[in-house]
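wait is this the right file?? whatever heres the structure
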């Protein structure tokens, strides 16, 4: 793996003594609004949070775990707006100083293995990585469709993925890699995003 300026150069995050310690919905939204002034980025973070929550719910996980998945999604890019050169070091250190559950922190730290040098290990890590780029891509596609998410099909998304000029900033490599690491076929993952993302609460 080549070196990258955003490499975290560490493999342990948070403290296991803090397992189960999560931010309240209000604390998380306050942090989001204080740190992220870019509305489009907020939309992205809320959409990823929604997908994470929907996925954890689909697995039948309990309330605390579902909330952990949601928070990892909601805060994964919290420092990208104001401190892009410290992404995602700054949010990790903030959550560590607040003694937040290490599993949430680790998921955030591994949401871009090529960029941060941290491998996704847990299911939550892997799903955050898998949803991150795909979520933004499907959102971009919804914006160019007159009916948005309504009637959207997997094959339409796949066609756009092959068109390298469409949403060119989305790394096709990461989309593919995310699906492989999650062990979920790309078609299935796309269908999950199509079926769930339109319902995300963007407030
Ligand atoms: Fe990110
Ligand atoms: Fe992201």
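ok assuming it is, sequence goes like this
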């Amino acid at each position: 793996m080549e070196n990258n300026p955003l490499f975290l150069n560490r493999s342990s995050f948070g403290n296991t003594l803090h397992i189960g310690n999560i931010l309240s919905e209000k604390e998380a939204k306050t942090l989001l609004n204080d740190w992220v002034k870019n509305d489009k980025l907020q939309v992205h973070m809320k959409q990823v949070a929604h997908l994470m929550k929907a996925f954890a719910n689909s697995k039948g996980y309990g309330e605390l775990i579902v909330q952990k998945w949601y928070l990892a999604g909601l805060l994964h890019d919290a420092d990208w707006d104001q401190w892009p050169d410290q992404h995602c070091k700054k949010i990790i250190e903030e959550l560590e100083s607040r003694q937040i559950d290490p599993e949430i922190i680790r998921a955030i730290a591994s949401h871009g293995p090529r960029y941060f040098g941290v491998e996704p290990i847990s299911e939550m890590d892997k799903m955050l990585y898998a949803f991150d780029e795909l979520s933004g891509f499907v959102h971009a596609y919804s914006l160019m469709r007159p009916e948005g998410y309504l009637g959207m099909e997997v094959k339409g998304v796949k066609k756009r993925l092959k068109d390298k000029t469409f949403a060119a900033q989305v790394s096709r490599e990461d989309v593919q890699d995310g699906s492989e690491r999650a062990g979920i076929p790309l078609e299935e993952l796309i269908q999950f995003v199509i079926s769930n993302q339109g319902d995300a609460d963007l407030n």
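The mean pLDDT is 97. so i think its the right one actually
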